[in-house]
Amino acid sequence: MAVSKYISAIKLWTICAILLMAGEAQATHIVGGELTYRCLGGQTFEVTLVVRRDCANGADDAPFDDPALVGIYLGQGELDLSLGIQGVLQMPFMGEDTVSNELIFDCGAIGGPICVHETTYRDTVYLPFPKKGYIFAYQRCCRNGIINNIVDPLEVGTTFIAEVPPIAVTDCNSQPVFQNWPDVYTCLNEEIDFDHSAIDIDGDSLVYKLCTPYVGASIDAPKPSAPSNPRQLSNVEWLSPYNLNNLLGGDPLRIDPVTGRLTGKPDLVGTYLVGICVEEYRDGILLSTVGRDLEINVRACIDPITVDFEALNNDCDGDLTVDFNNLTVGADSYTWYFDYPNTDPAFISNEINPSFDFPAEGHYTVRLEATRASDGCTSIKEKTITISNTPLVPAFDVVLSSCEMGDYIELIDQSYDSTGLTRPVAWDWTITLNGNSQTFNTQNVIVDVSGSDEVEVTLTVTSSSGCESTISDIIEVGELFPNPDFKLILQSCTPQYLLEAVYLPDGSNNFTVDSLSWSIDADGLQSNFVDVDSIDIFSNGDSISVSLLVYYSNGCVREIMRDINIPDLFPNVEIQNDLINACIGT
Question: Highest mean pLDDT range out of 397-411, 427-441, 549-563?
Answer without folding.
Answer: 427-441
